[in-house]
Design a protein that fits this description.
The chain is of the alpha/beta class. 28% of the residues lie in helices and 25% in strands. It contains six helices and eleven strands.
Length: 192
């Protein structure tokens, strides 16, 4: 169905940084320092060479995120609805057929992450793919067709906020990331 996918020009990337940061004591995780830059800046540097355009999904400290030189999208509704709301906001702003989402706190991603995700989806004729590393799936590192915005909206409206459940409802396929040790930095100790 999507066998002839172009990678770079057909993809918008989004750094998901809109969470509450509860495991970081309420800190805005995307702005937490790691090896001389913020977590969001690390992910922007990873995505930028791989996609046509990069966005950041954030819900606070918007001026700081804008200072990184990319467009910032917000969930556009009160409350905290998790990564799916950020994915929806980005899918609505994307002008490409594909959206690649990367959580700001997932470290160790390879430089060809976008190609791995898109090619896996295209080879399977799927509308979505997620990263599968040695330690298991990383659902907030994923690719999805931007025409799934309606399905994202429906899931949120029905109170279904889990990224995993959404991806499975879209028959997402796993992209092989087992040759890289991905780290989900769920707290400050993971950055030490």
């Amino acid at each position: 169905m999507y066998a002839a996918c172009a990678i770079h020009d057909d993809v918008t990337g989004v750094v998901l940084a809109g969470g509450r940061g509860l495991r970081f004591g309420g800190a805005d995780k995307g702005l937490v320092a790691y090896r001389g830059r913020t977590l969001a800046e690390h992910q922007l540097a990873l995505l930028a060479p791989q996609v046509r355009r990069v966005l950041i999904s954030a819900n606070r400290n918007l001026a700081r995120y804008r200072s990184f030189g990319v467009e910032v999208v917000t969930d556009g509704q009160p409350g905290w609805f998790g990564p799916l709301a950020g994915m929806l906001a980005a899918a609505r702003r994307a002008d490409t057929p594909w959206l690649v989402c990367v959580a700001c706190d997932t470290l160790g991603l390879p430089a060809d992450s976008v190609a791995r995700l898109i090619r896996s989806a295209c080879r399977a004729g799927a509308s979505a793919a997620y990263a599968l590393a040695d330690d298991g799936p990383h659902y907030t590192v994923c690719a999805l067709r931007t025409d799934l915005a309606g399905s994202l909206q429906d899931a949120l409206a029905a109170g279904r906020y889990a990224v995993r459940a959404f991806l499975f409802s879209q028959h997402a396929v796993a992209a092989d990331f087992r040759d890289h040790a991905l780290v989900n930095a769920n707290g400050p100790e993971a950055l030490a």
